[in-house]
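FAQ
Q: What does a multi-component entry look like?
A: The components come first, one per line:
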Amino acid sequence: MRARYSAWLLIVVGIALVVGAALVSCTPDRSAPELSDAEMESADSLESAVSDEPTEAPPDIVTVDMDLIEPFTDQECLDCHSNQTLLIEITPEEEETESLSEGPG
Amino acid sequence: MAPVEPWERIFIDVEIYQEDIHSQINCTTCHNGTSVDDMEEAHTNLVPDPAKDPVKGCGNCHPDISPHAAESLHLTLEGYDTAVYQRSIPEHFDRIEYMEQYHCQDCHATCGDCHVAQPDSVGGGLLEGHAFVETPPMTRTCTACHGSRVQNEYFGKNEGIPPDVHFRARMACVDCHSGAEMHGIDMDNNHRYDGEESPTCQSCHQDQVGVGSGNPWHEAHGTEVLSCQVCHSTTYTNCVNCHVEQNEENIPFYSVEDHYLGFYIGKNHLQGLERPYAYVPLRHVPVDKEAYSYYGEESSYGENLLPNFDNRPTWLYATPHNIQLHTPQTESCEACHGNDAFFLTPDDIPAEEVAANEDVMVEVAPPLPEGETNIYRDDVAPDGTAPAEGDSGDDASGDDAFWGDGASEDDSPETETDEDEAFWGDDSAPSTEEADTSTEDEAFWGDQPDDNEAEDTGTTQQSDEDFWGG
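Then the predicted structure of the entire assembly, as tokens:
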């Protein structure tokens, strides 16, 4: 009876060791790679470029993807509405009308 | 406010606008129309104010704000409806809506009315050559609409009444009224005083208010008897009535018979968890039983449109924007207790409005409770009757503690610092004395009226410009 249990125990332990070894071998290698001298210099310069003080990010006031905005093509609108001389010329003067209303509201 | 020339209203200042991210968007994307040389064709189907529908006009890029703004009181003016409908009956609502088309549409504030242009009610016109401003300039937007009451009170334009202490400390509207409040974010209110009180004095003066504050006046009244304004605001504008009508050429006009300065403490008809105060200042609002039937049977809008006029007081909960540390009410306990002059009593109310105001008026001013001794504020106290030194929140040190920066009635804004400049922009805010004349830092303050205009708008000038804050 005891010998049968020992055999089963050995088999289970053996299977566990095999599965464990397989999992370990599949784990990605997260160790730091060996760098060449040139790569080390590049990494050093990157590090020195990082400031000690965190920089405040500008407020994210526009949530739209700007790449989706079409290029500006409405130049005629802009040309007219940015032409002060033209606007003064074509905008009708407002007639001063006497207000019918009375009181401060 | 300086008038905007017609051409200026539509002038795009390329130098300024090109720095604005909105300049990357095609004009026609928001305004419709067509970009062609022919003016008539270009303007066909033009949408002058795309922000009239905030979701459609601004929602693509500002989806977190625009749906709220679309439902905000600034845009819907639901507060007006709440007040008017309460005095009317459903059968008249369509006539009232018709009236509102002529008399209220200009008051709707769209996103664009604050962030890119002046409101229609003051003639419109681009603020900064079509560049959008994140913080609207106070005098060209906020007080352009909130002119005859808030502006005159806050800037001290009512004769003999100093500016609000917060104005003297260079605080602008947005220092108390948050963007969330202005845009109605997470608010579901049908009136300005519906829902959570915001802003509150306690937000800044948390340690100086109520029991435990060390101020004997505040200790005595706690936080549920009086609103802060009962003691710390002073004389404000009250309007006798308002009538709206159209003339024979269908041109709408209004007529406010009279207005006057006064201060009236009364019962709080909005008393509840949000506003627990038993007593508040009450302001007579511009309303009248015949407000919409000026010509009687010949009226453009209908006769007797407010049959339930008595359903709502004509003296209403008010938060006057002329806060002072020292007011006539704070001179002594008996300045208020037993003094009918500060209270809304039946004598103050015309007979035809008594029924409407039964819930807010008091028969007589509440007397000083039995056993209590009258004490005086230290600067007006006869010998030995001022609160003991150290107990009073009104002594000099107490002033500093209460107001934070030591502002008192005679204080003018402190000397500029770099921080001030950073806060106010390229120059300091106008001082109390300069506020009505300075043209500096117009980006923030907008165009200030000149001194004469400021004085006129106080209580005498009666014109449209006066109504809208000049």
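Q: Is there any commentary attached?
A: Sometimes. For this entry: Residues 197-400 of chain B form one domain.
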